[in-house]
Structure formats: structure tokens, C-alpha cells
Amino acid sequence: MSAPSLSEALGQPTSSLSEPMGQPILGPRALSDSWPRFWHLAYNIARSEFKLKFFGSALGYLWQVVRPLLLFGVLYVFFVMVFHVDKAKGAAGHFYGAQLLGSIVLFTFFSESTGGAVRSVVDRESLVRKIQFPRLAIPISVVLLAAFNLGLNLIVVMIFALISGVRPMLSWLELPLILVMIALLATGISMLLSALFVRFRDIQPIWDVVSQILFYSSPVIIPVEAVKEKLAHGTLDHFLYHVYTLNPLVTIFQQFRHAMVNRATLSAGQALGSWAALLEPLALVAVIFVLGFWVFNREAPHIAEDL
Amino acid sequence: MTTEQTAVQRRPALAAQGVHKRFKIPEERSHTLKERALHPLRRSRHELLHALKDISFAVAPGEFFGIVGRNGSGKSTLLKCLAGIYRADEGRIWCNGRMSTFIELGVGFNPDLAAYENVALNGIMLGLSPREARARYKRVIEFAELEEFQDLKLKNYSSGMHVRLAFSVAIQVDAEVLLIDEVLAVGDAAFQQKCFDVFTGMREEGRTIVFVTHDMSAVTRFCHRAMLLERGAVVDIGDPRDIADRYLEIAFGRAAGYEDADVGSARMGDGAARVSDVWLGDDPTERRSVAPQSEPLTLKALVTFNTAVRDPAVSMALLNEQRQQVVVATTAREQEETGGFQAGEQAVFAFSFHNMLAPGRYHPILTITHRGEGLDVIDRLAGGMSFVVSGVTASGGMVEIPVETEVTRWALAPPSEVQPTGGRG
Hints:
The complex is a heterodimer of chains A (307) and B (425). Chain A has one domain (32-306). In chain A, 39% of the residues are buried. In chain A, 70% of the residues lie in helices and 1% in strands. Chain A has 307 residues and is an all-alpha fold. In chain A, helix 5 packs antiparallel against helix 9 (203-217) and helix 8 (175-199) runs antiparallel to helix 12 (248-261). Chain B is α/β, with parallel strands linked by helices and 425 residues long. Helix content of chain B is 24%, strand content 31%. Chain B has helices at 3-10, 33-38, 75-83, 115-125, 130-135, 137-143, 159-171, 189-205, 216-222, 240-255, 331-334; strands spanning 14-26, 46-59, 64-69, 90-95, 99-102, 177-181, 208-212, 225-230, 233-238, 273-280, 290-292, 296-305, 309-310, 313-319, 325-330, 340-341, 346-354, 360-369, 377-382, 387-390. In chain B, strand 8 and strand 9 (233-238) form a beta hairpin. Chain B is globular, with a radius of gyration of 27 Å. Strand 1 of chain A pairs antiparallel with strand 4 (90-95) of chain B, so a sheet runs across the interface.
């Protein structure tokens, strides 16, 4: 017996059926038709993850704040008390502690969101294989959680800065712009890595190494001023410095130091040579974001099969 | 009625047209960038598994639609395509109304969170707003009967509790179309009964349910129509009883090692005699397929002898849908000496008992053996026919034995035996 056709199954000729016959089921996608649903989902995944992480341990949320502070303490002891990095740079070295802590906190956000996103989709296999929902909600929830931690950590940075003697400035209004830029960068990389990890399981160790390299090659410990001074002679130096400044984290961290902590430090524009040169790292952020979304969107329909 | 309304009414709740799904199964899967970088030109060889072949069907609003098939026939893949978890390679699928799914025995709970968080999160995933999802928590936990365990993390739940919670979430999201994959395979009898009650309620409310199962009694009890899949293709769509019969033919015919129960080449035994027919009722012309509960039941087997056999015995085992042997009987107990039979002779062996079986479908297995320990098999027939026990009494047990109950008032208990109730009320 042959299978009945659709019209037989419906008991009426197919030609009389109005097309479309309802809402088409297209399979899994990165985004959903409804933005509120997407945000509810991302927010609630982040929320449950937050509970999971901090309600389980005795010290709870305190750890989240203490971790960057501990790193800060170690680096501060070595680079300020032993090697006097701050003394070398004159006025730019003032409030080096607040500069260092601020960069560490920003980098913590970057590494938490990107590093956490790598495994996020694969670790939620049981959801992905059983429910249709916008897949992108998973990596976005990781970034949201990291952003929440960043908010709290920034309060600590502000308190530390005020105690150190930094006074409120008009340029503090630049903070949202700086945060948007690092958030876009982190989101772009998170989308890219979480989608690629489904197929390439060595993305994780690779990213661990890249993340480490970015930590040391960004102005977290060593200020841009010092790098600029060292790489000031000859074309090779010039080229290396150019490569160094391509890293969007250089722009982000340096502008944070300049606008939020110490006006005597170079602004991002000065560090790169001209404000127009800023277009390079900005364009790179845009490219990474678009590429990340494109790859995730392309992979989303078959993540459930490739797991 | 306007034309627009009729058009909407004509729309199926769920429809699939020409759906194909193929899976690539790599022979050796490279899971790393390193391998891709070292061997950029090596094309990974893979087998193509054609999991779904040109599936078309439509489910009317308010219909209870069963999908049956053997393991690997594509049922679950089809359900995942319908649910939007897999993307169909070809063809189109439509749905009208909010859909809720219950696939792979759960909705993916986080083992480290308690019930409340998981229920809220899964409600949101299935399309509820956060407020709706939280408001429904109480109903979900009540239906799952897990009130006492709601503060436990889910990793401390038993698998049955997991499934109960997941199923509760899936049915509490007010979906118009519900896709359910094998919920009856787990859970105790009481919960199964509860699921049946929910199904009955949903049927009455006019909700559309697509239901994948191996349980033919559930198919015949609930479904308006059913679809049989085999090797990724639709074999038949139609009346659940016909579909159930065809499924059993395919499933047990193959399992016993032959394509068709009437072709005897691969049957067990030495072949000195063969079970040539089995029927329900006194007369072979009756061929009843339903045996009412609490009435006498007779099952007869016609045996044809190919060579002379002395004192053969025929035994009958009745298997229910869960493949449990409910009744086993043999002629050897009462009539050890059945006499000698010549080649070409035929004999009818009858088994009669008062039908106290629970409602459902039963499959007789008939075995002819030589006299002795019963291991010397002449012929064995499984999957030749099946019948349904109909009745209103379904207490959940395998049999419905009349049980007398009595409540008698006793003397007052001595004070030492009265337990304090622990501050209730």
C-alpha cells in the first residue's frame, strides 16, 4: 500500500488548501520571531546559572568580587612595589593601582564571557536536543552573566579609585561607550566560539592560550605609554606597534584609563596616532561581531544533529 | 460563515508535505581544528542515512494522532522535525497554534537546580512568559505529585520523578498542539493511568495530540488515527486498530525471524507438525478479534501433522503489550497421552478459561512439542494473530480477578497504638 498523499490525508484536494497552511516550522534557528521571548530566555538562563554558581558555595558571591582583587593584589605587589612600573611614567603613572584594577575587571568580563561561551552550547546538549528555542540565547546568557559581574566589579573599582584620590570627571560619561565596545567584542567572539566548538573540540584549549596572550599583550599590566616608547625606532618597531594597537582591547583599556582614572595617560586616539586610526579597531570589532553572528546563524539549524 | 473562516477551519493543526531527512554519518569523525588544518583536502567519508523518506500527512485540529513503528523506523526523527529541533532537508511542515513538546523523556533539566527553577526555565523555553511560567509552577508540581520533593536538587530525583516533572511541564503550557514521545515507557502504573486521564481530558477539550509509542493498546485506546512508519517511510495511515495489527505483523514477524507468519521456512522446530491456524472463539468461521472481559474465552489452534507423531503437546502463552507472559497453559498437564497422529492428519487443540485479563491487546504464542520435557520443539508460532480484551475494569493490574473487600468496625485501639499526627491542622 502506498502512502496517502497530503490531499488524501486531509480528505480534500490539495488545490483547495490555502497556502500557507499555518505557521511554517522551519527548524531551529539562532533567533526567534519574538524578541521578548529571546530576552526572557537569555535572561532566565543567565539567572539560573547565577544561582547555580554562587548559591552553592559558602562564600557565595563574594568570590566573584575577590577573584579580580586577588589578581590585582599579586600584580600590584610585583609591578608597583618591586619593579616600580608606575614611577617610570611620570604623571601617567599616577593612580596606577586604579588603572590596573580597572583593566583587570574589564579583562575579567572579556575572559568570563568568551571563555564561558565556548562550551556553553555543548554543555546544554540536553536542552538543545529536546526543545526548539532560539539557540543564540545560550551564548548571550553567558555574556549577560559576565556583564552583571562586571557591573558589580566596576562599583568596587570606583570605590577603590575614589579612595586612591581620583576625583569625578566629566569624561566619566564615556564609560557607556567603552562598555558597549567591549560588550560587542565579547559577544561577537562568544557567538563564534560557541558555534565552532560544536564541530571542533580543540577550540577550547586554543582559546585558553589566545586569551592568555591577549591578557599580556593588552595594556592591563604594561601601559601603552611604555610600549609606545619601546617601539619607537625603525619600520619594524612601527609595524609591531601597529599590530599591537589593532587589538581592540588596547583601545578599550587605554580609553578607560584615560577617561575614568587619569587624564595624564594617553587617550586611545593619542595612543594610535590619530582619532581616525581608531577606525581600525572599531571596524575590527564590527567585523568580529558580524562574523560571529553569521557563523552562529549558519550553524544553528544543525547544532542538535552535530552534538 | 465567511470564506476566510472556512479557510482557517480547513487548516490542519499540523501538516507535513514531502518531508525528507538525511543524516551524514562520518566513518571517522574529525573533531578538531588541528586535523582539519593538517589534512585540509581530505574529504571526510561518510555514509548517508536516509532517515525520513517523503513523509506527508495532516492532523486535523482536535485529532489524537498516533505514530508507530519499530526502533529505527524514523518516528523520533519525524517528531523532532515536527517540533523544529531538526530541520527537514526537503519538504514543508506547518503548525497552527502553540506547540508544546515532550521529547526524549524530558525537557532537559539542570540537575543542580531545584524543581522551581527548572520548571520556570522550561516553561519559558516552551514559549510561556516568565510570569506565566512561575504562576503555573504550583499546578505543575501538584500534577507531578512531587510537592514533598520540590526543594531537592534534580540530581537527587529518581528517573521516574524526572519524567513526571517534565511531562507535567509539557502539558501545563496550554499548547494547542502537543507532541509526545514515549511517555508511557517509564513511570509507575499510577502515573501511567494519570497520563491516560490527561489524554482523555485533552481529547475532550479538542486539543491536538501527536503521540509516538510502542504501546499498541494505547494507540487503539486513544488515537483517532495512526500512522505506521517503517525504514523512514510511511507504510499506512488509518484506523488505529488496522495500524496496530500491521505494526505487530512487522514487529513480531521480523523478531521471530521470518517475514510473514504464514511462510513457514524459518520457523522453529523440526517441522513434524505445524500450527496452521489460530483463532478466537469456538468456530473457525467466527474469527473474533475481541474477547469481552468476564466471559468465557476460547482460543483454538489447528495443527497439521506432516509425519506421524506420538503424544504431542501444545502449549499456549499469552503475552500482553509489555511482552509479559500473562497466561501460560499446556495440554501436557491434563492430557499427557494425546494419542498418535498420522501424516496429513489435522487436530484442534483448544484452550478455554474465564477471561479475567486486563483490557488491552494480547498475542498468543503457540508451541507444539514432543512428549517429554517440552524442549523438543516441533513448531512454534508467534505473531500469527492477536486479539483485544475489551472491558471497563482497568485497575492497573495485569489481570482482573474478582476481589471481595470488606470493612468491619473493630474495637477502639489501645492508647499506646494511637500515633500522634504531628501537628496537622
